[in-house]
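re the bet — no i am not wrong, look at it urself. input seq straight from the record:
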Amino acid sequence: MSAPAPPAQGAARAPAGPLRIGEAAKACGTTTRTLRYWHEIGLLTPSGVRHGGERLYSPGDVERAGRIKELQDLLGFS
């Protein structure tokens, strides 16, 4: 069995655990305001919400947000 290929150079790695909105925004190269907007329109839903309403993003959520950002930039929507 062969070893998995290393990630592409410059590819962002998703963090290990759930992140607060500011940490997630920083990890995917966007702003907290953008993440809130994407949540509002149903494009990206956080995996969890704490009792006080604080959004929590999983590694998969962060990867999805990064991909949305990439596509947005590629298509000229920014």
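see?? The first helix runs from residue 21 to 28. told u. also The radius of gyration is 14 Å. so pay up
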